[in-house]
Amino acid sequence: xxxxxxxxxxxxxxxxxxxxxxxxxxxxxxxxxxxxxxxxxxxxxxxxxxxxxxxxxxxxxxxxxxxxxxxxxxxxxxxxxxxxxxxxxxxxxxxxxxxxxxxxxxxxxxxxxxxxxxxxxxxxxxxxxxxxxxxxxxxxxxxxxxxxxxxxxxxxxxxxxxxxxxxxxxxxxxxxxxxxxxxxxxxxxxxxxxxxxxxxxxxxxxxxxxxxxxxxxxxxxxxxxxxxxxxxxxxxxxxxxxxxxxxxxxxxxxxxxxxxxxxxxxxxxxxxxxxxxxxxxxxxxxxxxxxxxxxxxxxxxxxxxxxxxxxxxxxxxxxxxxxxxxxxxxxxxxxxxxxxxxxxxxxxx
Length: 349
Prior knowledge:
With 349 residues, the protein is an alpha/beta fold. The protein has helices at residues 30-38, 60-66, 81-91, 110-120, 175-181, 193-203, 238-255, 258-283, 287-302, 304-316, 322-325, 334-342, and strands spanning 15-23, 45-52, 71-74, 96-101, 104-106, 125-127, 131-133, 139-141, 144-146, 152-154, 170-174, 207-209, 216-218, 228-230, 233-237, 346-348.
């Protein structure tokens, strides 16, 4: 593991924020990301940490050469998004962490806007910024609400500041809260780790908020492929859909209070199997049912010991009531909205 390190400072000597960027084969995108971070207009000091997850594009040495002021962590093996961020958080010296995708770019006042909200609130808060499509400039969301089955619903209401969850593409969290929650569960590997962090934080009485101003631009779906709604329909991949459905199941098992879990989980399993069978029939591809939906359900058994132990810890320390936990949810299943708007999704290998 090699590092190159220099703190990006403004007026203050204390490092207020550690910007953590997980990178894998980001040759075509990470320069824009890094420039947007290094050119931030804010009145406090921050550092930039990049974790390169065993990239094969030959660009890692160029990052080290062109940006000597950052901390570069080189991984000899590809370990996934969760471990990448956990490593950066462990190295971070800031009071706050900003987890940022390498396919995202910050507007010039992003750090200042996030910090202003963080110090104003009396309880710990997880924050994001309004997200804009990097290609079209259109507003994508102001954070996310959730439906009962943990499908993310874009919040477009400028008057709603409290949401259910945020994208890990731009996620601000106090390091003390991160440490208390234990960071990302490494057995998630990738996807829904942001959902897990926000739900567990809300169980502990923290808030998830979105400032009304500033923002970030995001090349949606660039990092993992798929997950991008277009005019021609919803496009995804087997890998993305498999991890997403599996990890959402994990979050439901871990975070839902018992009264809600006993009602929603059986319905959720029934709907998942129905969805898988219908998609497999329409696409004439039984692998959709087995690789995505059966995998999502059999994984609950495979990880049962971890899930039971972690659920016991989370629920025993819960300070939020059932009504408060679901207060930011919307109760119309979001997949129905997507079906009406985009039709049957394309699922690529």
